[in-house]
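Need tokens for this chain, all 361 residues.
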Amino acid sequence: MLLNKDPRLHTFANTIVDWQRRHGRHHLPWQGTRDPYRIWLSEIMLQQTQVATVIGYYERFLSRFPDIQTLASASQEEVMPYWAGLGYYARARNLHRCAQALCTDWGGAFPKTSAEIATLPGIGRSTAAAIAAFAYGERCPIMDGNVKRVFTRYFGIEGITSERATEQLLWRSAEAALDQAVPAPDMAAYTQGLMDLGSQCCTRSRPDCPQCPLQSNCYAFAHSRQRELPAPKKKKTSPERQCKMLILASSGAILLEQRPSPGIWGGLWSLPQYEDEQALATACANWGQSPGTAQKMAGLVHVFSHFRLHIEPWYLRAETPIAAEPAPRQAWIPVGDLSATALPAPVKKILGGLFDESFLF
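Here are the structure tokens for all 361 residues:
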């Protein structure tokens, strides 16, 4: 692909702008604003997460943390309940760190360029570009998963998109599409249009080519290679892990323990976890309870990015109140307070099925 000689580059950006204005999304809660805080929050939440899932979390988070200063002054323990269930919890920890860095180093406001924004904790090049494009109109390209799919199909870019050489070619293509666009595109509409096109037309499994504004010049469409591009990643077998979780109830409260941070579910409150039934039985006995009274519940599987966790919950209700103090990082949480507790999604599902589904978002 000769980036400087491909005639399709001249019209690529504004074709997407025109399509977005007519057919793109315009009513999402984070649209229609130039507030970089709100744009940043939406971009972080949308990483690895569907729009429909994000909307409720976004609105609840903003209601509690309406600006950078409010978020920075909160503790991580106050922030995590508003992220619980959204997954990829390092995003929330980095969000909190970034707000503190903005208050400490940038006077409580976002810097004005994508290059400066990209120096902040938890913000990569594409996210920084999206913030700068939406908030300040900076002419800078983005490159998320949806956008990679559009570029690989339209320009016929071979190679696995996560590999360095292919990714560099994608970035060069995105830069060239903006550099050679005539006239200069509306950056908010172009950036949103790329996202919308990838999620509405140029989808992974069933691209809607007849509705795509790029169809007439698209390499993949012309050569019937929509299924081959982007090149599929080599499939990896996810390791399988097992654990037992203890639901220990006493006096209307559940024993929970805070997970260490960083780590899986870092900062969230989870059920005590054990590798086998012997360790579970020992824990029950340490609380003065007979392991034989624990009831095995239906298990579930939770899929992480790099392994699958098979969870086997065991429920044990103490016949008499437990007086012993919990260990460090453990606490008795009243069932009525579970809705305000930062719980991992599978733990929330387990407890919701056992007690009350009203706190499930």
